[in-house]
Write the structure tokens for this entry.
Amino acid sequence: MRGAVIAPGISRGSLLLAACVAMAAQAQTVTVELDNPWVHVFRVKLGPHEKSAGRKCAACVIVYLTDAGETAYFDAPHAFDQNTSDLPLEEIVVELKAGAPKSPYPPITLDPAKLDPRYHTVDFENERVRVLRTVLEPDIRSPLHEHPPYVVVYVTELHTTMALADGKLVDNVRRRGEVAWRDAMKHSTENIGTRRAMEIQIEIK
């Protein structure tokens, strides 16, 4: 896959921003969120019309927090260097590491996109990742399902519970824009909050 694959409905005019920004260029706008053998994840914030020196980087998935969690994939090499809009921008960049090890987990059999397509939809998929969008209204509970190792980006503030396959119940309170890494897991999720909950899962292949 070459170039950018943009999820349907994305507004390109407000998204021109450094996809992969040199970490030393403007330290106040870039924050490392995660780093492991598979991904390097960082947060980018730019003010209106702010420039940031760019660099070419490995393939990456971007979650545009200031555009309702729209997503895009950029193949290597790729870089932007300016926010051309009149509004501040915030993005989560998930850089896929070259030579990453293969997942030690078996393929999933309980696919949430097939079991619960109303609330779990695929933004896009390629040979390296699948980007899954989960949207749960209050009091909605997803069926038991599985994920391979993945990065999760919380697009909205939310309060959910995760019932794991071993019977453990995990209380999950998150702020908008938080990021987490999860190993392969089997669970169901219930939105016990009062607001619509949205998260993006970048599943690693």
Q: What stands out?
A: Residues 56 and 77 are 5 Å apart (CA to CA). The chain has two domains: 4-96, 112-204.
